[in-house]
Amino acid sequence: MPVPELLHCKNYKYFRKKGDECVSGKYIIIPKYLVREFFEIIKNHRIYLNEGFFSRPIETEILFENPAVEFDLKTIKDNYVLKSLSGMPESLSSKNDVFLYGSTIYLPDYEFCYKISPYLKVFNEARVVTIDKKQEDTVLKKLIPNLNFLSDRVTLSKTIRNKVVIDKCKFNFYFNKESKNITLILKVKYGQFEFNIFEDCDEKIIYRESKRESQVIGILTSLGFEEVNGKFYFLMGDDYIFNFFKNEVFKLQEIGEVYYSENFKGIKSIGSKGINGDIKTGKYNYFEMDFKIGDIDPRETTGILKAFRDNLKYYKLKSGEYLDLEELELNKFLKLLDAVSYNNIEDNNIKIDTNKAVFIDGYLEDNNITYIKGKKELNKIRNKFKNVDKLEFEIPKELHASLREYQKVGYKWLKNLDYFGFGGILGDEMGLGKTIQTITFILSSQGSKSLIIVPTSLVYNWIDEFEKFAPTLKVVPIVGPKEERETAISNIEKQIEELQTWKELESRVAALLAVFDKLDKAKQQKEELFLLTQRINKTKADTKQAKQITKASSRVESLLKKYASFIQLVKRIA
After folding, report:
1. Non-local CB neighbours of 391 within 8 Å, separated by 6+ positions
2. What is the residue-averaged pLDDT of the chain?
3. Angle in degrees, CA 431, 434, 438, rounded to 5
């Protein structure tokens, strides 16, 4: 290396006292306080140690690390005895920052250089140091930790090891929720002894890894934790906190164990085992599903679903925990709820339109969802679709009209919906006969009740249409003041029962008339005929009621004419 480069490297300019030479022939004289800088410059060159170091030239290397000094500490009688088994490194600079140990040159960190200095002085005078046992506290609490810092090759006698704890440092992170704050206590564990990182262990003398402990505290600080009185507080926003527990907490898990208290779990895990549901047939034409999402209060379900519909990544539970809405099984279940439920859900129970049965059945199968029971009810609807092409629905014979072809299509479509238990909308344009199609559908479903809701001005138009096209149907208008409407509603069942009585009467009379074709059996029916006659007369006595009933059915009107002839016949037989 040229002399000018050496003299001016790193802006170092003069070196030696006045009158001393820096260069002597082919030699460069290095000032002792610049030895470290010199070795840092030539570190990538081949280096030999010649006379003055060893008896013959030896190639060496420069290492930027601490020399592996070996120490041995034991008790002999009432004294502690410290030895440097392989000797101490030789300092090559006035600053004690460059060492020759064995045949290797070391450039350690400056903290090592500072702490090794007193040991160099002591062991320069003797290879063995004896310490009075009266200084045991100093030996155990200060000397041994210093030795462990200087070297990982410290040998302690069994007697000494029983008095202290020298072990790897482990970290445990304890999360909790106090009031509205998320707190963290960081504990260190050496052997079987665990304690707060900001406190000392009272049970035993423990040699702590101060550097490592400081590093972990620094990591927590960088993640947003603030230390207050030996406890960390996580005073960040919900988005940040959720992201931490979902995507960043692994950084702590790589360092040590992470624990959660009973009232705070960070992100609440649900999984497929935490969700269950049961689908069953409802009271009316719908399905019901009762479900459960882990141990979450049902009162929070509506909020969870709203957060999902708002495309949020999480929902913050009242416990302060975070529910990951992107978790696979929970996400699939919330998609199902979103598709089949309305805005408000009470007690984790939803009513599902029957027409969604096929969708639900397919969704459960496609997503391999096995935690929802009641698929048999869904399959009943699905199986009906297999026979949909074979369904035939006849136009009721009682209909007093002829349907056009497109009206027949509309009528059959309504019947298909009724067969599946679905609802629907008949959306023809005005004047194409939606009314007649609806009346035909109602007429085909005799024995059941139908509610028709129309503007007040159209109520009697509909009644006229029923009397015109389906006179056999009983139609009751619910109009007028509230009291009249309530009375009309309460009378519907009574009027229907009366209508059924007349139908029953008609069938019995027809049977008896057939009997009278054989006069030899007529007298056997005499008693029943008289009872029947009394019933007829009693019913006909209420003219107003008779008119109401006969208006509902033209067949009953013709039947009354038969009754008159029948009564005369009864009288002759009697």
Report:
1. 415, 416, 419
2. 81
3. 155
